[in-house]
From TrEMBL, chain A:
<dbReference type="InterPro" id="IPR014342">
    <property type="entry name" value="Ectoine_EhuC"/>
</dbReference>
<comment type="similarity">
    <text>Belongs to the binding-protein-dependent transport system permease family.</text>
</comment>
<dbReference type="InterPro" id="IPR000515">
    <property type="entry name" value="MetI-like"/>
</dbReference>
<keyword id="KW-0812">Transmembrane</keyword>
<dbReference type="Pfam" id="PF00528">
    <property type="entry name" value="BPD_transp_1"/>
</dbReference>
<feature type="transmembrane region" description="Helical">
    <location>
        <begin position="186"/>
        <end position="210"/>
    </location>
</feature>
<feature type="transmembrane region" description="Helical">
    <location>
        <begin position="69"/>
        <end position="90"/>
    </location>
</feature>
<keyword id="KW-0472">Membrane</keyword>
<dbReference type="InterPro" id="IPR043429">
    <property type="entry name" value="ArtM/GltK/GlnP/TcyL/YhdX-like"/>
</dbReference>
Automatic annotation (TrEMBL), chain B:
<dbReference type="GO" id="GO:0043190">
    <property type="term" value="C:ATP-binding cassette (ABC) transporter complex"/>
</dbReference>
<keyword id="KW-1003">Cell membrane</keyword>
<dbReference type="InterPro" id="IPR035906">
    <property type="entry name" value="MetI-like_sf"/>
</dbReference>
<feature type="transmembrane region" description="Helical">
    <location>
        <begin position="20"/>
        <end position="45"/>
    </location>
</feature>
<dbReference type="InterPro" id="IPR043429">
    <property type="entry name" value="ArtM/GltK/GlnP/TcyL/YhdX-like"/>
</dbReference>
<feature type="transmembrane region" description="Helical">
    <location>
        <begin position="193"/>
        <end position="212"/>
    </location>
</feature>
<protein>
    <submittedName>
        <fullName>Polar amino acid transport system permease protein</fullName>
    </submittedName>
</protein>
<dbReference type="InterPro" id="IPR014341">
    <property type="entry name" value="Ectoine_EhuD"/>
</dbReference>
<comment type="similarity">
    <text>Belongs to the binding-protein-dependent transport system permease family.</text>
</comment>
Amino acid sequence: MFDNLTLFVSTIAKGLLLTVEATLGGIVIATVLSVVAGLAMLSPSVVVRVVARTYVEIWRGTSEVVQLLWIYFVLPILTGFQLVPLWAGITVLGLNFGAYGAEIVRGAVQAVPREQYEGCVALSLSPAQRMRRVILPQAFADMIPPFNNLFIQLLKGSALLTIITVPEITYQAREVLLIRHTDQTVLIFVLVLLFYLALSIVITVGMRLLERKAAARLGRRPAERTAFFAKVGQGSGVA
Amino acid sequence: MNWSWDWNYAWSVLPSLGEGLVVTVEATVFGSLLAYVLGLVFALLRRSRFWLVRTIVWLFVEFVRSTPLLVQLFFLFFVLPDIGIRLSPLLTGVIGLGLHYATYTAEVYRAGIEGVPKGQWEAARALSLPRGRTWTAVILPQAIPRVLPALGNYTISMFKETPLLLTISVLDIVGAAYEVGSSSFRFVEPLTMAGILFLLLSYPSSLFVRWLERRFGIAH
């Protein structure tokens, strides 16, 4: 049963780079959008708030599969502009998870104690200075654990790119291996799942480091240590 | 570019989307029920007296949560027939969704159970209630209402993930839209209508769950 193990691992690994690219690309776009939309939802201007809210609700309210198919099949017809599958995938991952992330940013900024705002006013800091020097550094530390979960969700979401024929890990298993080795389904898929597990552990380790750094910068102790896997797997608290 | 939205065509796809909607709702309802029940089983097994049981359940839950639902669906879809279990694609999908989300709801139940004050356990002991009665008459009736909003959130998440089932040939809303689109080579209307239908259903559900949270919720 394990005769083909090397072949399987190397074939799946061919998709690894694409999965990593899609995930990283998605993470970068999602992070930028989260901060922009999250802060926009707290803006004093009604128009800005409504625009940000609309983005968040539309991208959270429709399914990722719909978004993917829409960008891949509908957008080219409407605009005459066809995205490369990988870029279509990264765009959808970024926009979709950015909408969830925006709520995390908003929540974390709102959770900074009221007194901190009052302190800023007392010191007559400008609104920009207040955000940059006082509020965001504190909110940032609180955002890291939920963003860890979000990024793992995003990694798992990247498997969907199979549908629009991006040859990432899942595609390699399903379209390349499964067709030729129909009798070894279990081994093939268990290997794929282990690849994803390894990647989500990498994300968690990275976010852990960031969390310690952010806490240390604020002169706080890092958040209580939890069992390793308790972090790795934390699922979608998102809805 | 001379493309325009065709209302006649858009209306004509609605019946197919409606049929797909029924499938989506079925998958979500049965998937959630399975997730609610299995999640509770996992949560209780994680408090088992036997460390081996606790460890196995813990490893299983963490493994399933860290890996994509899509791959798990493929796994079930291709492996179950191999070991002689022949289920319809929809049923396979329900099992996949239910099992995947059970690993999330297990954590929700855990938080709910741990939120029941210690004094309640002590009182049950003082009354010498047997273990089973302690759970059914004291702990769970207090733990479960508080976790309902969190469970509701997972039902909405699941609703948004049911279109994954189209990869194992279940014709949900999106599957139906895709099929109509491929047979007429017009994707714009069916896929857009499917998206709007989704939004119309999921946004009010989120509002409802947020209301539940304000009413009964615990911080999750």
